[in-house]
Amino acid sequence: MLTADQRRLLGEFIRAHRERARPVEASGRRRTPGLRREELAAKAGISATWCAWIEQGRPVQASSEALDRLARALSLSRAERDYLFELAGRSDPDIRPDPDIPASLLAAVTAVRHPAYGLDRLWDACCWNKAASRLFRGWLDGDNQRNLLRFVFLESSARKLIPRWEDRARHILAEFRADYPRNFRDGRVRSFVETLRRKSPLFEAAWNEHDVRRREGGLRIFNHPDEGRRAFIQHTFIASERPDYKLVLLVPTASPANRASSK
Length: 263
What we know:
The protein folds into 2 domains: about 5-90, Orthogonal Bundle (434 Repressor (Amino-terminal Domain)); about 105-260, Beta-Lactamase, CATH 3.30.450. Strand 3 and strand 4 (about 230-240) form a beta hairpin. The chain is about 50% helix and about 15% strand. By secondary structure, it is an alpha+beta fold. A 5-stranded antiparallel sheet has the order 2-1-5-4-3, with helices on both faces.
Protein backbone atom coordinates (compact mmCIF):
# COMPACT_ATOMS: atom_id res chain seq x y z
CA MET A 1 0.00 0.00 0.00
CA LEU A 2 1.13 3.51 -0.77
CA THR A 3 1.60 5.98 2.06
CA ALA A 4 -0.57 9.09 2.24
CA ASP A 5 2.39 11.19 1.08
CA GLN A 6 2.96 8.93 -1.93
CA ARG A 7 -0.72 9.11 -2.88
CA ARG A 8 -0.69 12.90 -2.50
CA LEU A 9 2.43 13.31 -4.63
CA LEU A 10 1.09 10.92 -7.27
CA GLY A 11 -2.19 12.82 -7.46
CA GLU A 12 -0.45 16.20 -7.65
CA PHE A 13 1.87 14.93 -10.38
CA ILE A 14 -0.96 13.58 -12.55
CA ARG A 15 -3.05 16.71 -12.07
CA ALA A 16 -0.14 19.03 -12.93
CA HIS A 17 0.60 17.16 -16.14
CA ARG A 18 -3.08 16.92 -17.06
CA GLU A 19 -3.41 20.70 -16.71
CA ARG A 20 -0.38 21.35 -18.92
CA ALA A 21 -1.42 18.83 -21.61
CA ARG A 22 -2.71 20.27 -24.86
CA PRO A 23 -6.25 19.30 -25.91
CA VAL A 24 -6.51 17.55 -29.25
CA GLU A 25 -9.06 20.09 -30.42
CA ALA A 26 -9.31 23.46 -28.71
CA SER A 27 -12.86 24.72 -29.30
CA GLY A 28 -13.86 28.07 -27.89
CA ARG A 29 -12.79 29.36 -24.49
CA ARG A 30 -11.93 26.72 -21.88
CA ARG A 31 -12.20 27.28 -18.14
CA THR A 32 -9.98 24.30 -17.40
CA PRO A 33 -6.32 24.52 -18.44
CA GLY A 34 -5.03 21.57 -20.37
CA LEU A 35 -7.20 18.45 -20.44
CA ARG A 36 -10.39 18.01 -18.45
CA ARG A 37 -10.50 14.88 -16.30
CA GLU A 38 -13.11 13.40 -18.58
CA GLU A 39 -10.89 14.02 -21.60
CA LEU A 40 -7.86 12.44 -19.95
CA ALA A 41 -9.95 9.48 -18.80
CA ALA A 42 -11.30 8.91 -22.32
CA LYS A 43 -7.85 9.26 -23.84
CA ALA A 44 -6.31 6.79 -21.34
CA GLY A 45 -9.22 4.34 -21.37
CA ILE A 46 -10.00 4.73 -17.66
CA SER A 47 -13.03 5.99 -15.74
CA ALA A 48 -13.31 9.68 -14.92
CA THR A 49 -14.18 8.77 -11.32
CA TRP A 50 -10.99 6.73 -10.91
CA CYS A 51 -9.00 9.60 -12.43
CA ALA A 52 -10.54 12.03 -9.93
CA TRP A 53 -9.88 9.74 -6.99
CA ILE A 54 -6.22 9.19 -7.83
CA GLU A 55 -5.72 12.97 -8.24
CA GLN A 56 -7.35 13.45 -4.84
CA GLY A 57 -4.90 11.03 -3.23
CA ARG A 58 -7.51 8.45 -2.30
CA PRO A 59 -6.33 4.87 -1.58
CA VAL A 60 -7.17 3.44 -5.00
CA GLN A 61 -5.19 0.72 -6.77
CA ALA A 62 -3.36 1.74 -9.93
CA SER A 63 -2.24 -1.16 -12.11
CA SER A 64 0.86 -1.00 -14.28
CA GLU A 65 -1.36 -1.16 -17.37
CA ALA A 66 -3.52 1.78 -16.24
CA LEU A 67 -0.41 3.84 -15.42
CA ASP A 68 1.04 2.98 -18.83
CA ARG A 69 -2.09 4.32 -20.53
CA LEU A 70 -1.98 7.45 -18.35
CA ALA A 71 1.67 8.05 -19.19
CA ARG A 72 0.96 7.76 -22.91
CA ALA A 73 -2.13 9.97 -22.69
CA LEU A 74 -0.09 12.65 -20.91
CA SER A 75 2.87 12.26 -23.32
CA LEU A 76 5.29 11.88 -20.40
CA SER A 77 9.02 11.94 -21.02
CA ARG A 78 11.15 8.97 -19.97
CA ALA A 79 12.19 10.75 -16.74
CA GLU A 80 8.57 11.71 -15.97
CA ARG A 81 7.40 8.18 -16.72
CA ASP A 82 10.05 6.70 -14.39
CA TYR A 83 8.93 9.14 -11.68
CA LEU A 84 5.28 8.14 -12.13
CA PHE A 85 5.97 4.41 -11.75
CA GLU A 86 8.33 4.92 -8.81
CA LEU A 87 5.72 6.99 -6.96
CA ALA A 88 3.04 4.39 -7.67
CA GLY A 89 5.30 1.50 -6.64
CA ARG A 90 4.61 -0.33 -9.88
CA SER A 91 6.73 -2.01 -12.57
CA ASP A 92 6.88 -0.19 -15.88
CA PRO A 93 5.82 -2.62 -18.66
CA ASP A 94 7.58 -0.45 -21.25
CA ILE A 95 11.20 -0.58 -20.04
CA ARG A 96 13.43 -0.71 -23.09
CA PRO A 97 17.22 -0.86 -23.30
CA ASP A 98 18.83 2.44 -24.28
CA PRO A 99 21.80 1.83 -26.58
CA ASP A 100 23.15 5.35 -26.19
CA ILE A 101 26.14 5.65 -23.88
CA PRO A 102 25.99 8.86 -21.80
CA ALA A 103 28.25 11.50 -23.32
CA SER A 104 29.68 12.36 -19.90
CA LEU A 105 30.80 8.75 -19.47
CA LEU A 106 32.57 8.64 -22.82
CA ALA A 107 34.24 11.99 -22.17
CA ALA A 108 35.52 10.94 -18.75
CA VAL A 109 36.86 7.57 -19.88
CA THR A 110 38.66 9.20 -22.80
CA ALA A 111 40.08 12.07 -20.76
CA VAL A 112 41.89 10.12 -18.02
CA ARG A 113 45.20 8.27 -18.47
CA HIS A 114 44.59 5.78 -15.66
CA PRO A 115 42.44 2.65 -16.21
CA ALA A 116 38.79 3.70 -16.56
CA TYR A 117 35.67 2.02 -17.88
CA GLY A 118 31.90 2.46 -17.95
CA LEU A 119 29.28 -0.07 -16.86
CA ASP A 120 25.63 -0.21 -17.92
CA ARG A 121 22.73 -1.67 -15.91
CA LEU A 122 23.81 -5.23 -16.81
CA TRP A 123 27.37 -4.37 -15.76
CA ASP A 124 28.50 -4.76 -19.35
CA ALA A 125 31.53 -2.60 -20.12
CA CYS A 126 30.11 -0.03 -22.55
CA CYS A 127 33.35 1.96 -22.94
CA TRP A 128 36.94 1.81 -21.68
CA ASN A 129 40.34 3.31 -22.37
CA LYS A 130 43.64 1.74 -23.41
CA ALA A 131 44.94 1.63 -19.83
CA ALA A 132 41.91 -0.44 -18.77
CA SER A 133 42.35 -2.75 -21.76
CA ARG A 134 46.00 -3.36 -20.77
CA LEU A 135 45.08 -4.06 -17.14
CA PHE A 136 42.08 -6.33 -17.67
CA ARG A 137 43.43 -9.13 -19.81
CA GLY A 138 40.69 -11.57 -20.72
CA TRP A 139 37.96 -8.98 -20.23
CA LEU A 140 38.57 -5.71 -22.06
CA ASP A 141 41.12 -6.93 -24.62
CA GLY A 142 40.28 -8.92 -27.73
CA ASP A 143 36.87 -10.40 -28.57
CA ASN A 144 35.73 -11.29 -25.06
CA GLN A 145 32.45 -11.17 -23.19
CA ARG A 146 32.29 -7.59 -21.91
CA ASN A 147 30.24 -8.32 -18.80
CA LEU A 148 32.13 -7.83 -15.53
CA LEU A 149 30.28 -10.56 -13.64
CA ARG A 150 30.69 -13.10 -16.44
CA PHE A 151 34.41 -12.35 -16.47
CA VAL A 152 34.82 -12.60 -12.70
CA PHE A 153 32.74 -15.75 -12.19
CA LEU A 154 33.32 -17.70 -15.41
CA GLU A 155 36.76 -16.83 -16.82
CA SER A 156 39.85 -18.64 -15.51
CA SER A 157 41.99 -15.56 -16.24
CA ALA A 158 40.03 -13.64 -13.58
CA ARG A 159 41.20 -16.08 -10.90
CA LYS A 160 44.81 -15.38 -11.84
CA LEU A 161 44.35 -11.61 -12.12
CA ILE A 162 42.44 -11.09 -8.85
CA PRO A 163 44.08 -12.10 -5.54
CA ARG A 164 41.66 -13.73 -3.07
CA TRP A 165 39.41 -14.29 -6.06
CA GLU A 166 36.44 -15.86 -4.25
CA ASP A 167 36.22 -13.07 -1.66
CA ARG A 168 36.38 -10.40 -4.37
CA ALA A 169 33.80 -12.24 -6.52
CA ARG A 170 31.36 -12.34 -3.61
CA HIS A 171 32.02 -8.67 -2.88
CA ILE A 172 31.36 -7.66 -6.50
CA LEU A 173 28.13 -9.65 -6.59
CA ALA A 174 26.95 -7.97 -3.37
CA GLU A 175 27.57 -4.59 -5.05
CA PHE A 176 25.63 -5.69 -8.14
CA ARG A 177 22.80 -6.81 -5.86
CA ALA A 178 22.51 -3.27 -4.50
CA ASP A 179 21.58 -2.17 -8.06
CA TYR A 180 19.16 -5.06 -8.63
CA PRO A 181 15.96 -3.56 -7.14
CA ARG A 182 16.20 -0.68 -9.62
CA ASN A 183 16.81 -2.96 -12.60
CA PHE A 184 15.03 -6.27 -12.01
CA ARG A 185 12.01 -5.15 -14.04
CA ASP A 186 14.27 -5.36 -17.09
CA GLY A 187 13.84 -8.88 -18.45
CA ARG A 188 17.43 -8.86 -19.70
CA VAL A 189 18.70 -8.39 -16.14
CA ARG A 190 16.60 -11.25 -14.77
CA SER A 191 17.64 -13.54 -17.61
CA PHE A 192 21.29 -12.63 -17.09
CA VAL A 193 21.12 -13.49 -13.38
CA GLU A 194 19.44 -16.84 -14.06
CA THR A 195 22.09 -17.73 -16.64
CA LEU A 196 24.93 -17.05 -14.21
CA ARG A 197 23.15 -19.02 -11.50
CA ARG A 198 23.13 -22.04 -13.80
CA LYS A 199 26.72 -21.67 -14.97
CA SER A 200 28.52 -20.75 -11.73
CA PRO A 201 28.04 -22.69 -8.46
CA LEU A 202 29.74 -19.84 -6.57
CA PHE A 203 27.39 -17.27 -8.11
CA GLU A 204 24.38 -19.45 -7.21
CA ALA A 205 25.55 -19.88 -3.61
CA ALA A 206 26.41 -16.21 -3.15
CA TRP A 207 23.17 -15.04 -4.80
CA ASN A 208 21.12 -17.11 -2.35
CA GLU A 209 22.93 -15.48 0.59
CA HIS A 210 21.42 -12.07 -0.35
CA ASP A 211 24.49 -10.05 0.67
CA VAL A 212 24.22 -6.38 -0.32
CA ARG A 213 27.02 -3.78 -0.37
CA ARG A 214 27.41 -0.27 -1.62
CA ARG A 215 30.09 0.17 -4.25
CA GLU A 216 32.55 1.83 -1.90
CA GLY A 217 35.79 1.54 -3.86
CA GLY A 218 39.12 1.45 -2.04
CA LEU A 219 42.30 -0.57 -2.56
CA ARG A 220 42.33 -3.02 -5.46
CA ILE A 221 45.23 -5.41 -6.13
CA PHE A 222 45.84 -7.22 -9.43
CA ASN A 223 48.41 -9.82 -10.46
CA HIS A 224 49.10 -8.68 -14.00
CA PRO A 225 50.63 -11.37 -16.28
CA ASP A 226 53.27 -8.95 -17.66
CA GLU A 227 53.57 -6.13 -15.11
CA GLY A 228 53.31 -8.17 -11.93
CA ARG A 229 51.49 -6.99 -8.82
CA ARG A 230 49.64 -3.68 -9.35
CA ALA A 231 47.80 -1.64 -6.71
CA PHE A 232 45.06 0.92 -7.37
CA ILE A 233 42.48 2.96 -5.49
CA GLN A 234 39.09 2.45 -7.10
CA HIS A 235 36.53 5.26 -7.42
CA THR A 236 33.00 4.92 -8.84
CA PHE A 237 30.85 7.76 -10.19
CA ILE A 238 27.24 7.73 -11.42
CA ALA A 239 26.28 9.43 -14.69
CA SER A 240 23.83 12.18 -13.72
CA GLU A 241 21.87 11.92 -16.98
CA ARG A 242 21.66 8.12 -16.76
CA PRO A 243 21.90 6.82 -13.15
CA ASP A 244 21.93 3.21 -14.41
CA TYR A 245 25.39 3.87 -15.88
CA LYS A 246 28.54 4.21 -13.79
CA LEU A 247 32.15 5.23 -14.34
CA VAL A 248 34.90 3.20 -12.62
CA LEU A 249 38.32 4.83 -12.26
CA LEU A 250 41.46 3.09 -10.95
CA VAL A 251 44.21 5.42 -9.71
CA PRO A 252 47.62 3.79 -9.14
CA THR A 253 48.94 3.95 -5.60
CA ALA A 254 52.53 4.85 -4.70
CA SER A 255 53.23 1.26 -3.68
CA PRO A 256 56.67 -0.36 -4.19
CA ALA A 257 55.01 -2.87 -6.54
CA ASN A 258 53.72 -0.09 -8.82
CA ARG A 259 57.05 1.77 -8.80
CA ALA A 260 58.85 -1.40 -9.78
CA SER A 261 56.44 -2.23 -12.60
CA SER A 262 56.70 1.29 -14.06
CA LYS A 263 60.49 1.08 -14.54
